[in-house]
Specification:
The chain is of the alpha+beta class. It is 17% helix and 46% strand. Strands 1, 2, 3, 4, 7, 8, 9, 10, 11 and 12 form a 10-stranded antiparallel β-sheet that branches. A two-stranded antiparallel ribbon has the order 5-6. It is elongated, with a radius of gyration of 20 Å.
């Protein structure tokens, strides 16, 4: 007997859970950066206007959505609720020139203990969904000199809070492991703790657009960060 494909198994599991009005379906989700994405660092210890430094970002996030699906939830004001568990964050930025000091590739990653999480409320019949997500990440420059100055990765908690557009067909695409146009854009800001040498109180800003995808696209920057993280 031929086994059903992964998308078919997911849809069958969803239909079974819906028919009984109970049970949970775990859905793997990959959010990959698409388009132009940037990260900037504003350092108060440096004189303006030459205290803002920027670079481009690549990478993505692997997560799992845990859905308890009931057909009546499609018609409710809140919609279909899902808990999101962030499994892995892998982002990388081109090297930044800090007034002649090269950062090397900048790596943004989870700490391996708690990568973050949140909630997703899907209302596909209204073509919208609410996303609340926290990414508990760290930032590390890879240049040896800056590694000596900042031996511990810098904390960067990224918060996403968006209402996005999603249709029923896009929801089915998401359940089947694809994207089907599911995107969210967000400006993320965080302030580094004051005790961080030189960079204390600096504002980190990331302008990002994520889209559901089958996998995070390959990148030499991400490969560099993978090698770097393996040595931590």
């Amino acid at each position: 007997m031929r086994r059903a494909s992964r998308p078919t198994r997911l849809l069958l599991a969803l239909a079974t859970a819906a028919s009984f009005g109970c049970g949970a379906v775990e859905i793997p989700i990959t959010l990959a950066l698409v388009g132009d994405n940037s990260i900037t660092l504003e350092i108060p210890a440096f004189p303006p206007p030459d205290n803002v430094f920027g670079s481009t970002l690549v990478g993505g996030v692997d997560a799992t959505a845990i859905v308890r699906f009931k057909l009546r939830d499609l018609l409710s004001p809140r919609g279909v609720a899902a808990a999101i568990v962030v499994d892995r964050v892998r982002l990388a930025a081109e090297p930044i020139d800090l007034l002649g000091l090269d950062t090397g590739v900048v790596c943004v990653f989870d700490d391996g203990v708690d990568a973050g999480g949140g909630f997703l409320f899907l209302r596909p019949l209204r073509k919208q969904a609410d996303v609340t997500l926290t990414l508990d990440t760290r930032i590390a420059p890879t240049a040896p000199l800056l590694q000596a100055i900042f031996p511990d990765p810098l904390p960067f908690e990224a918060a996403i809070d968006q209402t996005i557009r999603i249709t029923l067909s896009e929801l089915l695409g998401l359940l089947a492991g694809g994207g089907a146009g599911f995107e969210l854009s967000q400006r993320i800001e965080a302030t580094l703790p004051p005790e961080v040498p030189i960079l204390g109180g600096s504002i980190v800003t990331a302008d990002v657009t994520f889209a559901a995808a089958e996998a995070i696209p390959a990148s030499p920057l991400l490969d560099h960060c993978a090698d770097f993280l393996a040595g931590l």
